Amino acid sequence: MSLELLEGSEAIARAMIAAGCRFFAGYPMTPFTEVLEGMAEHLPEVGGVCVNAESELEAIGMAWGAAAGGTRAATGSVGQGLSLMQESIAELCFARVPMVVLNMARGQGDYFQATRGGGHGDYRTIVLAPADLPEAVELVQLAFDLADRFRNPVMFMGDYYLAHVVEAVDTGPRVFPPLPAKDWALDGSTSGTGKARIVSPIMPTKRDAPVFVEYGAYLEAIGERMDAMTSAVEPLFEEGGCDDADYVVVAYGTPARIVRYVAEKMRREGVRVGFFRPISLYPFPVEALVAATRSVKCVGVYELNAGQMIDDVRLTGIDRTVEFIGGISFDDSGFGIAPELTPARVEARIRRAMEDMAGQGVQEVAA
Amino acid sequence: MSNLVDTAAPPSRPAKLVDDFAPPLILPGAHKLCAGCGEPAAIRSVVEMVDELGLTSRSVGVFGIGCYTSFSPGMDVEVLQALHGRAPSLATGLKRVQPQSIVFTIQGDGDMVNEGLQEVIHTAARGENVTCIMLNNGVFGETGGHMTATTVIGQRTKNSLEGRDPKKHGYPIRMAEMLAPLDGVAYVARGATNNAGNIFQLRKMLRSAFQVQADGLGFSFVEILTMCPTGWFLQTGEAPDYLQDKLQGFHKVGIIKDLAKAPDE
């Protein structure tokens, strides 16, 4: 293990290459641009290819083609660019093409886009949202493993802070269990053999395949495959101080890092606050959140938007008051950073929420 | 009398079925395209030229969305199925990681010129070493005959019932002529499938285009004018002449650019 002091975007780029990514395509947009720069610099050093695509539509198309050739491929963007990619993300799920899609978000207004998606049909993508660089370099490598394991796109969700924070990280390759061979990948070698391969979102088999799959059956199979993937992934989360907390704050990504700091500080001051951080946004850590909030009186959801992840918190079915304590943090940069995202303001929101809770007699709710 | 079949006696050999005429690399089974469609002959020409050049065992076709997508599962050639308009980008990614492979796209005029115009232009400008093939019948055949960006002036479609009028619908795009000036482009030609002579010429064009790719000279493009009697609201037998009179008048058949040839040839 060798630690290096690296900026986030550089660390993410190096970790992707360590994971075996050999094709990357992207269209500049801050804070995704910084990762694109890193890939453009480092991929050729290992014989990989980085293409400066002319649009997000083309970027994900190029990564699609490279991935269909069996190469570990990635693309990404920011919310707006990812909106353009939604059609492809959906179809990549149907075509069973593995890919890592970086979502370097501005603020957290794209939670729905990431976890629900804006594409068509019964598709799902695993979404991983690290809160710091040591975790980011782990998760981006895990993303490639999961993508290949389930032959499905996997989204890695970062933000402006993650792209620019400087931390000591080890970007070396991680070890994962063996994967099945990519015997579906295209290189032309099966053309003319009577068993030519096809990678298609609409026709999973050639016309003369021993088992020809009709489209209706194929659509059903997609749904079953998505369910199987969802239940096979162990949801990831972090929690602290929830056991005897009166109030638990749920947050993800960089804001969760600040929430964690504030919750621990308030703990030291004798306030019974806990925090819960979903690391996999899909699948959402339902059981863990239910367990973590069993003894609390109220759950606050802190996110930098008008309230999106709060839906998933409510969908866990926890029998507690769930309230939104986040908000949009906007400055002239538009990157979703200051001024809300400071420990003082986060603490003020939590304290206000706890005072309201006490005032409204929420503590009377039966445990 | 001697030409008449003696129906009293059993046939001397079994009757031939459609599949008996299936060419190499085209899988048996009906393609379900309309009678008189020009696309099967175009696609057959494509795969036969790949085969003739001995490139089959490293060829991958990237298909767009249109009637011709029926051949996506219907060829004994590896296929990467793309979204409408996006085939050139997929071809780019695949070729970049599998440079030894021969990558070609099959798109219609609606797919390439309407939905995905930017994709093919940038792929050409980057000089990607792939072959893009456009089947151009001037209509969205699969939706039943709607106007595309290559529909010629005066052509009747379901959303230009009185014929394409530039005042209402604008002017069509000549795709081959548009791509040819780009620096990354090595070969551009436009052929047609409406008669044996044109198909013979088309096959030579496709052969040249694949040879250009095999030689690593850059982007190659072949536009193929195809009949669509259904989308043109014509009797099947009238479509070849309609192609000649209407489409070919605007989209001229011929080799437009060939960097493999010396300038004085």
Blueprint of the fold:
The complex is a heterodimer of chains A (367) and B (265).
Chain A: E1 4-7, H1 8-18, E2 23-26, H2 33-42, E3 49-52, H3 56-68, E4 73-77, H4 79-95, E5 99-105, H5 111-115, E6 126-128, H6 133-150, E7 153-159, H7 160-164, E8 166-169, E9 198-199, H8 215-232, E10 237-240, E11 247-250, H9 253-268, E12 273-278, E13 280-282, H10 286-292, E14 298-301, H11 309-315, E15 321-324, H12 343-359
Parallel strand pairs in A: 2-3, 2-4, 4-5, 5-7, 6-7, 11-12, 11-14, 14-15
Antiparallel strand pairs in A: 1-8, 6-13, 10-12
Chain B: H1 39-52, E1 59-63, E2 78-81, H2 87-97, E3 102-108, H3 109-115, H4 117-125, E4 131-136, E5 139-140, E6 146-147, H5 166-169, H6 175-179, E7 185-192, H7 196-214, E8 219-225, H8 229-232, H9 239-250, E9 254-258
Parallel strand pairs in B: 1-2, 1-3, 3-4, 4-8, 7-8
Antiparallel strand pairs in B: 5-6, 7-9
Helix pairs in contact in B: 1-7, 3-4
Key attributes of the depicted protein:
heterodimer, A: 367 residues, 2 domains, 7-stranded mixed beta sheet, B: 265 residues, Rossmann fold
Task: Please write the string of helix (H) and strand (E) elements of chain A.
Answer: EHEHEHEHEHEHEHEEHEEHEEHEHEH
Question: Any idea what the shape of chain B is?
Answer: globular
- Tell me the name of the CATH homologous superfamily of the largest domain in chain A: Thiamin diphosphate (ThDP)-binding fold, Pyr/PP domains
Helix content of chain B: 25-40%
Number of helices of chain B: 9
Q: What CATH architecture label of the largest domain in chain A applies? A: 3-Layer(aba) Sandwich
Known CATH architecture of chain B: 3-Layer(aba) Sandwich
Largest sheet of chain A: 7 strands, mixed
The span between the termini of chain A is 46 Å
Q: Provide the CATH topology of the largest domain in chain A.
A: Rossmann fold
How many domains would you count in the coordinates of chain B?
1
Beta content of chain A comes to 15-25%
- Mean pLDDT over all positions of chain B: 94
